[in-house]
Design a protein that fits this description.
The chain has 13 helices and 22 strands. 29% of the residues lie in helices and 26% in strands. The chain is an alpha+beta fold. The strands form 4 sheets. A 9-stranded mixed sheet has the order 10-12-11-22-21-20-19-18-17, sandwiched between helices. Strands 1-2-3-5-6-7-8-9 form an 8-stranded antiparallel barrel. The protein has a two-stranded antiparallel sheet with strand order 13-14. Helix 4 runs antiparallel to helix 13 and helix 5 packs parallel to helix 9.
């Protein structure tokens, strides 16, 4: 009896200590928008202080040009009187110190960097109604924590909305998948969307991401480059995949190895140019060169064209140069006219590389998850969207058919990966894959399209594909 009594006293002490700590920090709970001493019109930082298990926690959400990034977890939050301090980035040794104005709900302070330099960094609390309006994804963090599988919302973006109840998907498995994601079993997952038979039936966002947030596609961008190539051929900008690459770059001919005369567009589309990328130049080229196209065309050869599949980014960027030179306009304008506008894709971010007038085709485009899903649905529908032919059916068939066997567990078409389910052997998939967990996966036989976005750099490259296979494909009825 005495032992049980002491246990109850200890439990009461722990609970009241946690409550007191939570109460002490209550004024901080919520979302605060940061402003710097220098204007940063395209960049926003939102800091969320919240209580969890009796402790004060902090996450920093950042946005730039419509893109949202993974939240950064702060630590060591302290409030003494009106003095506020916390560690913003433990690895970079960046901390924050400021003064709380309780009446105006502002914090005036500075970021303090590892070298001792300081920068003004003021915070203003965001009312919930403004949070709902300006940052709906963050607003949902206040109320959506327990919502697992839910109905997708219609936002007038061209998607027909279906229901999970009428789908062929296993809701129990989807619930298990969401719980696994919340436990970070697949790294930092930002979104999972599923379309079945042309209807959006599943849509789940994490870490404050939401429908309108843009996300970097990474190498999924390459598969969009394949679509743009097909469009350019159909509209007469390019003859066909047999056309020589040096036809498109007469201004660089004098600096090119004579072997470039054997290189055709199809070699770019199948990653089989045969260039000699010694000393990892293919990775460093974006730092050491101001013109990736020129530098790539100056490379020497190690293999015969078409002999070896070798996944290298710069050779895909040549497609940007080809579209630029043949259309006599920007790649972004070309994509907007022939692909984005017909798909009702209104918001995207695709910057030019450094000071050049071309964007990278290897992985610099940002789209929303819903618009990524449209790309997959376009391929599933043999180039059609809402009854309109945007890419020729012949090109979809040709570009997603077998061209190369690779050593990466997939076959390859024209900048599309070709795979097969492990949980349902024989079920074929067409996949766009971007590093850190970006996927557009199409299963023609089941009329299914799946999109994931993530920041799972530390996970196995195929971990989210495993997740899709085991929780989505496996449960198909």
């Amino acid at each position: 009896m005495k032992k049980n009594y002491l246990t109850l006293i200890l439990l009461f002490f722990v609970m009241t200590s946690c409550d007191k700590k939570a109460a002490d920090y209550k004024i901080l709970y919520g979302f605060w928008e940061a402003s710097f001493s220098r204007p940063m019109p395209n960049q926003k930082f939102i800091i969320n202080f919240y209580e969890e298990a009796g402790n004060i926690n902090c996450k920093i959400h950042s946005y730039n040009n419509g893109m949202k990034y993974s939240s950064l977890k702060g630590s060591n939050i302290k409030l003494k009187g009106t003095d506020v301090s916390f560690i913003v980035n433990k690895e970079a040794n960046v901390c924050y110190k400021g003064k709380l104005d309780i009446q105006n709900l502002t914090i005036k302070g500075k970021l303090i960097y590892a070298n001792g330099s300081k920068q003004e960094y003021n915070l203003k609390k965001i009312p919930n109604k403004d949070l709902e309006k300006d940052f709906p994804g963050l607003s949902r963090l206040l109320s959506d924590n327990d919502k697992i599988v839910s109905q997708s919302e219609s936002i007038d973006d061209g998607w027909m909305i279906g229901t999970l109840k009428e789908s062929m998907l296993d809701t129990n498995l989807l619930n298990e998948m969401v719980e696994s994601i919340k436990k970070n079993e697949f790294g930092k997952v930002h979104s999972v969307l599923i379309a079945e038979k042309g209807q959006l039936v599943f849509e789940k966002y994490f870490d404050g991401f939401y429908t309108n947030d843009l996300h970097m596609l990474q190498s999924c961008n390459k598969s969009i480059g394949s679509l743009l190539t097909g469009i350019a051929i159909e509209n007469g900008y390019i003859k066909d995949v047999e056309q020589k690459v040096n036809d498109f770059f007469p201004e660089y001919t004098k600096d090119m190895d004579t072997k470039w005369d054997q290189i055709k567009l199809k070699h770019l589309l199948t990653m089989s140019v045969g260039l000699n990328w010694e000393r990892d130049v293919h990775d460093r080229i974006y730092e050491i060169s101001d013109d990736v196209i020129a530098t790539t065309l100056q490379q020497k050869f190690a293999h015969e064209p078409g002999e070896l599949f070798e996944y290298r980014n710069p050779q895909t960027d040549l497609i940007s140069g080809i579209i630029l030179n043949t259309s006599k306009g920007s790649v972004q304008d070309f994509a907007n006219k022939y692909l984005f506008e017909p798909l009702a894709i209104k918001n995207y971010y695709w910057p030019n590389f450094k000071s050049n007038n071309y964007c990278l085709m290897s992985g610099s485009l940002a789209l929303s998850s819903r618009d990524m899903l449209k790309i997959g649905q376009l391929v599933l529908n043999k180039g059609q969207w809402n009854g309109k032919q945007i890419v020729s059916e012949d090109w979809i068939n040709e570009s997603t058919s077998f061209k190369f066997k690779t050593d990466q567990g997939f076959n390859y078409g024209y900048l599309w990966w070709l795979g097969e389910s492990k949980t349902k052997p024989g079920l074929k998939a067409i996949v766009a894959i971007g590093i850190s967990g970006q996927h557009i996966l199409i299963i023609p036989e089941k009329e299914l399209v799946v999109v994931t976005t993530a920041d799972s750099m530390d996970e196995s490259p195929n971990s989210l594909l495993t997740m899709i296979d085991e929780y989505i494909i496996k449960g198909i009825k």
